[in-house]
Amino acid sequence: MAAVQAIYAHYVLTSLATFEETPPGLEEMRTRRRASRDLGLPYLVGERGGEIVGFAYAGPYRARPAYRFTVEDSVYVAPGLAARGIGSALLGEVIARCERGPWRQMIAVVGDSANAGSIALHRRLGFAPMCVLRAVGYKFGRWVDTALMQRALGAGDGPLNDPAS
Question: pTM above the 0.90 mark?
Fold first, then answer.
């Protein structure tokens, strides 16, 4: 998790991919991983040649019960390793694992609507653009948009046999 924390800290400090402004510490990153895993959601770390090259995970989209079948994805690739298929492999496996669970929709909240790499990655993996929320974040002295993208998982909005519904 130390390598995951270092990758994420890079994005916190240098990019608009995340709207966090202070990198979380190692223990906080472990807590976040545990929270995803406790919900049965995937949290994957990519390794190549003994080095951690990226990570991806799914977490709850929103806390209210009606959102229980919707998850949000996150994917980060180590600095200098973009456009090598790492993000596609990690996110593709997160999607596959979520499709084996009860989840029906996956949301991507892309920090900075100008993040062409993340938007292209999500499109390649079946996400459709939904909207751009203008000026919802403020980082590095400027207003920043987010792009929302969505992908159905498994049966999507098909019939649901949920005793809680």
Answer: yes
